[in-house]
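ARCHIVE CARD
Drawer: 12
Card no.: 0347
Subject: one protein chain, sequence and derived structure
Cross-reference: see card 0346
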Amino acid sequence: MADSTFDIVSKVDKMEADNAVNQARKELEQRYDFKGVGASVEWSGEKILLKASSEERVKAVLDVVQSKFIKRGITLKSLDAGEPYASGKEYRIEIALKQGIDQKAAKEIGKIIREQGPKTVKSQIQGDELRVSSKSRDDLQEVIRILKAADLEVDLQFVNFR
């Protein structure tokens, strides 16, 4: 019998992220406490740009955006929010979406699989994702359970279970 496999990836659904940004923009337009402070949320290339007239207001905009991402099912581990910085008369925060698993995190995940997972399970790094294989599907499901319980700094999805 051939090995069963699955891939571990870390991707953000671009459409869900776009929906979260649009919902945050609508809430900023409607809320009274954001009137007259120049609060805005918009895409700037691959990053999300938050603007407001003061540092406190831009942090409040960040809270709104984060709440919308959580409601859309995107964890905050997928967001890389920078620090507020002054730009002319306004303050800005740039948020980058984390796509893929970096080498450091991939090695950490591989180590967890080797130490805690069943001995029949093998993992290999393939670019920005990991391929996990074993003869037993039950062992693979055990690995998924272990990784979901682990406190990692990346958001993981398990795809292509064969």
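Annotation on reverse: The chain has a mean pLDDT of 89. The helical segments are 14-30, 55-71, 103-116, 137-149.
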